[in-house]
Amino acid sequence: MRDDIFSSKIDLVDFTFDAQVVDVFDDMVRRSVPGYQTMIEMIGLIVKTYGQNNTNYYDLGASTGAISLALGLNNNHQNNHIIAVDNSIDMVKKCKANLIDKITNFDVICVDINDICFENASIVVLNLTLQFIPVKQRQPLIDKIYEGLNPGGVLIISEKIHFDNEKKQVETTKLHLDFKRANGYSELEIAAKRQSIENVLITDNTQTHLDRFKTAGFSHSFCHFQCLNFASFLAVK
Known about the structure:
The protein is α/β, with parallel strands linked by helices. The protein has helices at 19-32, 36-50, 66-74, 89-99, 135-148, 166-182, 187-197, 206-216, and strands at residues 56-60, 81-86, 106-110, 121-127, 149-160, 220-227, 230-236.
């Protein structure tokens, strides 16, 4: 379904992943996030390289299930269990419907990801999710994920980022807006969504992400993909 949520919205509230957003989410993210398809394709490569037999794969903030699907369809390891987590009941319903006939050995649960106990994990993914978590809760969550990962396991985080260099930030923002225009969003839609989401989506810069991985104890981490102001990071335990 095409995203036209903000085409005529006047009374704006903070962005939420309600039933209205769930219906158009796949179209929204495709038209709003440069490089989104590549982010998903990279998950397919990563699971083949870093997945381990007899372990769990976690998809945190699973939304409609694109990452879980990439994990399941590209997995070449044995006896793995995919745990898809989202705190929106509407997203959970949509995720289950999208996965049920395509992959096996998965669960979709509706819970706050901060309440998850990570066990026997070789892959954990936060795809466009950490940015919606309060900043003070981010390091504790990364620490908790690290503790639940097996040696050699990986954490993948994809996020919208910001730049400390003002000129770079302005130029990249301009290109991102041009990307949205090229994908059919009007000036009204762009402005309305920006107003709705600005108090909900709080970005970090690249160094902040890398510092969190180091603080948690990961052996090494790096940005493996970036398109404009969206980046994907890989941290290895």
